[in-house]
Design a protein that fits this description.
elongated, homodimer, alpha/beta, eight-stranded mixed beta sheet
Chain lengths: 255, 255
């Protein structure tokens, strides 16, 4: 399979390396920043371009791993392509591609990627959608060659997953950051929380998380809630965040 | 060491079993509900009482693992005790005990305990504080017999840790619950998120969490943020929670 990668960020990098390892041939990397394109192309041993007019139009597959805003701009600057065009965005519908290209799809890897961390792509859920059966078969084939967890999900389901991922990953990490900041002020190490963080995750995997909720909000322990608000400082932004999350737990439990 | 346990909830149960396994002798369990006291006493093979007047006054150690409100009431109904009195609350100062008893302390296990999950107490950080050196030595000795992670923390530090634990455990679990609810509405399985949840935790342990923040708030991707708010429904409680957490990430990054 001859593949072109559009994008050079974390998703583009991890995905293209997985595709290469699965025996595919990456023939070109496009990025608006030629040094970024060249960096990734060096790892993939292929051509790099920053001028979209030089795009190789004879590939079997084009992966768009660029920012959501850039997809639309990029698509409008492209000629019609015979190969299948696929984007990797959780928040973007398939229509931005299928409106222009006959063979279009989405391959959304449900994982958080960083430059400094290796990810075993075999364990990354790949959520796919395609504009027709033939394209779907191709996308299932290529996705299954790099991951053990391939699932068809339409654009509505993918929107829900993308939002759920923000809650379970981005917001969770932010709460860790706020917790670390609180401890730092008292010269306490963040790693005191590791066993608790691990058990919280293990428990949420063993039981539906709503059924294992604990803490002052869950048991309506108003004294402790007030102590926490006092600690954060009434009328601070942090206190308002604490109050809204506490309210949210109370609302959820009385549903 | 002869120990009396006051309380019969999850902390009292896990702690007393760990103390028993370490070779201590639990001589009595008190709970206002005699059936709860009897259940735990059966596991510990000791006497159970629900009448505080029957409290054995000759123990070496008394552990108060009751709700924060109940500690004060319970203390006021007790005679003076020669043995050391210790509570296990993260949110309560040592003073509720040290005002009445000469040998007082706090042993706060930084973990989330559930009836249905076994916890290896050896890995639970035990944060201790005592009213004098002799009491501290005793508490360090007993804590070290059940956990590998014993650390002295004063009441201010413990308050910070307790609040940090609410953020990193209770609030995080609630976000998992909200994510699971979103997926359920689209007939998608919550376990699609497991690899992401695992990687989020692993990354927050490998790097300071603030430095590995990802997501639409981190990259100021307003289009995606607006899509998420639309998905939740403008003016819904869930949207206001999403907005406040998003704002919090943006504020944190511009500090």
């Amino acid at each position: 399979m001859k593949i072109v990668i559009l994008g050079s960020g974390n998703v583009a990098t991890h995905l293209s390396l997985a595709l290469l390892r699965a025996g595919n041939s990456i023939i070109q990397v496009f990025s608006r920043d030629i040094s970024h394109a060249a960096n990734l192309a060096a790892k993939l041993k292929c051509e790099s371009i920053s001028d979209i007019e030089k795009l190789n139009c004879h590939a079997d597959l084009y992966f768009f791993s660029v920012s959501d805003d850039a997809i639309t701009t990029l698509v409008s600057s492209l000629p019609y392509l015979e190969g299948m065009v696929v984007h990797t965005s959780g928040a973007t519908g398939i229509d931005v591609l299928s409106a222009k290209f006959k063979s279009a799809g989405v391959l959304y890897p449900l994982q958080t990627f960083s430059a400094k961390r290796d990810i075993d792509f075999k364990n990354v859920p790949l959520l796919i959608e395609a504009s027709n059966q033939e394209s779907e078969d191709l996308l299932v084939h290529i996705a299954s060659s790099i991951s053990l967890h391939v699932q068809k999900v339409n654009s509505a389901g993918r929107s829900a997953l993308h939002l759920a991922a923000v809650l379970a990953c981005n917001f969770t990490n932010h709460l860790y950051a706020l917790a670390a900041e609180l401890l730092e002020k008292e010269s306490l190490s963040f790693n005191l929380l590791y066993p608790l963080m691990e058990e919280t995750l293990a428990k949420a995997k063993a039981y539906p998380p709503a059924t294992v909720q604990t803490g002052p909000a869950r048991r309506l322990d108003i004294n402790t809630i007030n102590k926490h608000i006092d600690y954060l400082g009434k009328d601070t932004f942090e206190a308002s965040l604490y109050i809204l999350l506490t309210d949210s737990i109370i609302r959820f439990n009385t549903k």
